[in-house]
Amino acid sequence: MDATMIILVLLIATALAFDFTNGFHDTGNAMATSIATGALKPKTAVLLAGVLNLVGAFLSVEVAVTVTTSVIKVQDSKTGHLLPNITPSMGLTIIFAGLIGGILWNLLTWLFGIPSSSSHALFGGLIGAALAAIGLSGVKWDGILQKVIIPAFAAPLIAGLVAAAGTWLVYRITRNVVKKRREEGFRWGQIATASLVALSHGTNDAQKTMGVIALALITTGHLSGNVKETGLPFWIIASCAIAIGLGTYLGGWRVIRTLGKGLVEIESPQGLAAEASSAAIILSSSAAGMALSTTHVATGSILGSGVGKPGAEVRWAVAGRMVLAWLVTLPAAGIVGALSYWLSKGVGDLTTPMVGDLIIFALLVGLSGYMWWRAQQEKVDSSNVNADWDDSTNSVVPADVREAKTEASGESKDASKKDSANDTASV
């Protein structure tokens, strides 16, 4: 096995790792409101979402085509062959560095419970790496504008308006229904709408990783450049479906908590309206080949459900923090992608390209492990995902978890001081 093949295999594994993080980062898009209202138990919800994400990944390849043709320019649009100034090794490093940017941003925002866009993290990483390697000509700006930027701004606004109108209408129609009966009825409806969102998430987000793997195979000559006509090998579709399904089942509890408890104290009629709005928009965008951010759509829908319910409280401070994260996702992931490419190339010029790629892979593993470790220090899981939201801090970590950590830290310091005093006395 030559160096290019080794890097290709490692890149595919990294792409599936991104798909996995996409799954647990975005579980909340489908299930946060159903968990918050009690329509589904937390573990049941993530299991259902995982299965439906897996199924949804098999339904379409339109978004995968967009990723291979409308983001970065490494192949001739007519022949599908690599551009003359792009070698297979260089092309793989660009994609590899882009994936690293996407994964690290996903994990960072997950750590803080911020529902940012996995799609934009991926595209930002790829754009940054392509700019570092090729320059402005390495990015298909028209495709980015039409398929990514415009939907990024339009989708949450449309979703919010639809959800607000739907929520207002639902409460208007059921205003004479006893609240308890209304809540119970809409919880059953939420199971259906949440399932539809999970299915639509699989049709949209899993395809982005399929597109990345296809782009890598096109770069090495293992796949035709025209994915729309030739289709994708079954193993790509199946592996991406399994990866996003497993990631979804793991449950990104921190993001689920923010969406379900941090934005709006949501009731089941609001949840149903938000989920129905999200599903309709995501499915229609997938059919059109738009690499839409399902996170933006779901968040817009949840905010809309808060606006549409008379007297509902919307935590605009939390929403503002999320919007800020959305705005910096593309450039932040792009910077990481560019730095990763430059580091790999710098090391590769001194040694071999494979060594450079292995170095950035090792950094990815190390930083990912650190963020996972940090999350375990203040753990959010199925047992506390529905704990009351602390408005004084707007922290995703429940107050009792933070207090327990503070007490443990204080006890540790007291014990350390006592040991030090005993040592001094003995001297």
UniProtKB/TrEMBL annotation:
Residues 383-427 are annotated as: Disordered. It is a multi-pass membrane protein. One of its GO terms (molecular function) is phosphate transmembrane transporter activity. Residues 400-421 have a biased composition (Basic and acidic residues). GO terms for biological process: phosphate ion transmembrane transport. One of its GO terms (cellular component) is membrane. The chain crosses the membrane at residues 47-72, 92-112, 118-136, 148-171, 232-251, 323-343, 355-373. Residues 383-396 have a biased composition (Polar residues). Belongs to the inorganic phosphate transporter (PiT) (TC 2.A.20) family. This is Phosphate transporter.
